[in-house]
Write a structure and sequence with these properties.
Strand content: 15-25%
Shape: globular
Number of helices: 10
Oligomer: single chain
Distance between the termini: 13 Å
Order of helices and strands: EHEHEHHEHEHEHEHHH
Strand order of the largest sheet: 3-2-4-1-5-6-7
CATH class of one domain: Alpha Beta
Largest sheet: 7 strands, parallel
CATH superfamily of one domain: P-loop containing nucleotide triphosphate hydrolases
Length: about 220
């Protein structure tokens, strides 16, 4: 199973959602944002190395922490050497070895964002409850639709209590609302899923429910 986590713009919490979903689904988190990587990094080979043919995808997975991660390098030279068209094969290799993969996609609706979406079985779209963020989310939704990747869930991040029916209708999927959370922010600063820092907090419970909903959608 390959699940893509996408967004119409940066800064809406996409990487946070990807890491926490990977933790809940017992999946490998793959940072596929080749130029703006955000997931925790390790000391071994990274996705830049994999896409440049210097390492295999499986050997680049660091499974020593609370979440297995295939990190991406942060250098411009690494990004230039990487062949984005090899990403699909890399994701398939990790999925064959580990079973489940959650991909942190590049934000936006460019071709770089479309490649991991094309390789995925389904996607989760992350946005914020602002007019600008929702407009960008609609464009990301259209990209997923263009490559025929089903939308399993919409995550409305850092959202107050509010009605989400109109958002669900506009984007074409059920909405999970994630409120502001100090434990989640603390976990993010340490590169950890919130379940590893505060397993009984509301944010951890919300991610567990989100993972169950996504898993159910993928099985239906």
């Amino acid at each position: 199973m390959i699940l893509a986590v996408t967004a119409g713009k940066g800064g809406v919490g996409k990487s946070t959602v990807a890491l926490n979903l990977a933790a809940e689904l017992d999946a490998v988190a793959v940072d596929a944002d080749l130029s703006m990587a955000d997931l925790p990094t390790g000391r071994g080979p990274d996705l830049h190395d994999v896409l440049a043919g210097r390492a295999s995808a499986v050997e680049a997975v660091d499974d020593s922490g609370s979440v297995a991660v295939l990190a991406c390098g942060r250098s411009l030279a690494g990004a230039r050497a990487a062949d984005p068209t090899a990403l699909g094969d890399a994701l398939d290799a990790v999925a064959n070895q580990y079973g489940r993969v959650v991909v942190d996609c590049p934000a936006g609706a460019s071709s770089d964002a479309g490649i991991p979406l094309l390789a995925a079985d389904a996607c989760v779209l992350v946005t914020r409850p602002t007019e600008a963020a929702l407009a960008d989310a609609l464009r990301a939704r259209e990209l997923a639709r263009a490559v025929e990747t089903p939308l399993a869930r919409v995550v409305l991040n850092r959202a107050p209590e509010m009605t989400t029916a109109d958002i669900a209708t506009a984007l074409g999927a059920p909405v999970t609302r994630l409120p502001e959370s100090d434990p989640l922010a603390r976990a993010q600063r340490h590169g950890q899923p919130v379940s590893a820092v505060a397993p009984d907090c509301p944010a951890s419970e919300r991610f567990a429910a989100l993972a169950a909903d996504v898993h159910s959608a993928l099985r239906s």
